[in-house]
Structure formats: structure tokens, C-alpha cells
Amino acid sequence: MSNAVSALNSASFEGFATVTETGLRGMITLRGDLSSAKLKAAVKAATGAAIPDVRRVTTGKDGMAAWMSPDELLILCDYASVNDTIATLTAKLTGEHALAVNVSDARAVFRIAGDGAREVLAKLAPVDLSAGAFQAGDFRRSRIAQVAAAFWLNDDNSFELVCFRSVAQYVFDVLKVSAQPGGEVGFL
Amino acid sequence: MLTLQCPYCGVDAEETELHAEGEAHLKRFGPGSSDDDFETYLFMRENPKGVHFERWRHSNGCGKFFHAARSTTTLEVFGTYSAQTYEPPQDIKDKITAKYPGWSWREFA
Ligand SMILES: [Zn+2]
């Protein structure tokens, strides 16, 4: 098999915040009844994470779970262990109306770090990104300029953002423009 | 700009996160129905000046369809509610009645 590469091969840009494509990441779309005990146990077994509340992310020792919709989670894990994680989920969900699908190669992940990170995103998404409104562990599906994206805030005050791989270059370009030195708004 | 609260994820979504999906509470007439019913289902729509019920989709968000009650003249929003229903919830109808006594829309009033 050929070597897997991420959309932009870990490209990075240093502006008033740092924008980096974070390389290969395991990503799984998990659909099912989020209130079911079986699904809860499956996510716990696969990632160590609890089922996140609405618009939140949770972290476990082997991965993260993000709230995508009332019947959908995004599971994040190491790229290398994604098949094992799916195998665990699927085994634990036997008999349950649920589905776990590997979407790792259909997506790209960016990290936006630095003091101006909130502003870089706030210029591109119709979301209140003030410190009081958007806190560590918060997760939001929205748009970045003209394309769909989802992002969350880590404990270290960096954002991570997921978009479709086909628009990775576009998203990187608009993030770069937004983080251009001299473009600081100084509001957030 | 129109802002609607998505009843599924709770986000106060502004218009650019949403997609308008036409009139709410349409009853589908498919294969086997009469020509008149099928034509009405396909083409006949309300076009009110005032109270209106619409379907929206949180397309740049959780992806779910929901319903909204609003006024086409003032842009005021009376409320949003689940798509898994055949009629607007009573509290939203009450809110409209308080503001516009005697309103009606299709079979609702
Ligand atoms: Zn929503």
C-alpha cells in the first residue's frame, strides 16, 4: 500500500496566530442513539471518553468524542489505530442501530494557536468566540468563510478545526489571510 | 439579518448558517394519489403577508431540519420547533394569537 499523506502535509503559517495542518488523524463518524447505554459503553471502551453534552467535546486516554448532532458523534484517535477503534466500536454495538465509519482520509485538521487564535476564527465564522461565550471543551459546527467546518477549543487555548479534505487548501488560505500580521482587530 | 434558534443543537444561528427549505407542514401526495392532490402538493403554496410557517435546515451546523414560525412583514420570529410534528406547538400558536388575534394559516389558527 502507498504511504498515506494528509491533505497539506503539515503545512504551517506564522501570522499573529499560528496555523498548522496537523497531519494524519484518525476520524470516525459514529451515528446512533446517543442516550443508549450500549453506545456509551462502546465509546468508553474505544476511546476512554464519555458521551459529550450538546456542542461539547470529551477526551479519554485513547481519543476524543465530539457532539456533531443529536444522533452523531465524531470520534478522533491516532491515525494508526483507527481500524482497531472502529472494530471495538462495532463489536460493542452489536445489535444496536448504529454505524461507525472511517472518515479520516475525507477530512483535514488544522490547529490555530496563539493569542490571536480567537480572532482568526471570529473573522471567518458567524460564531460568538469571546472568552465568556466559547470555552475550553466547547465544540461548534459552522462555516469557515464559504465552506462547512467544525472546531473546538483545547485546554491550552488552541483551536482545532476539521473540514473536508477537498477544501483543505481553501481553508488554509483563508485562515492565513485572517491571521496576516497587521490584521489584528484587538477586540477578542 | 434573520436569526433562528436551532431546536436540535440550541445554536442561535444567523441566516448564513441556515438553508431555507420551503413551506412547513406539507402533506405529501405520491404515487396513486389523484392528479388534483398531486398538483396541489407539488405546486400550491401559501404566500402570506404576515404569519408564516417554514421549514429550515441547519445546513452549516448540526444538519437537522426544523420548523420556524415568523412574520414575513416584520421578520419577528415567534419560535422554532421540531420537524417531527404535524402542527405548530400550542405555545407558539398562543404567542402569535397574543400579537395577531384572529390570524390563520392553512388549517391552523
Ligand atoms: Zn442545529
UniProtKB/TrEMBL annotation, chain A:
Task: Specify the superkingdom.
Answer: Bacteria
What name appears for this protein in its UniProt entry? Sarcosine oxidase subunit gamma
TrEMBL record, chain B:
InterPro entries for this protein: SoxD, SoxD_sf
Task: State the species of origin.
Answer: Shimia gijangensis
Protein name in the entry = Sarcosine oxidase subunit delta
Taxonomic lineage? Bacteria, Pseudomonadati, Pseudomonadota, Alphaproteobacteria, Rhodobacterales
Question: Coiled-coil stretches, from where to where?
Answer: none
One annotated GO molecular function: sarcosine oxidase activity
Q: Name one GO biological process term.
A: tetrahydrofolate metabolic process
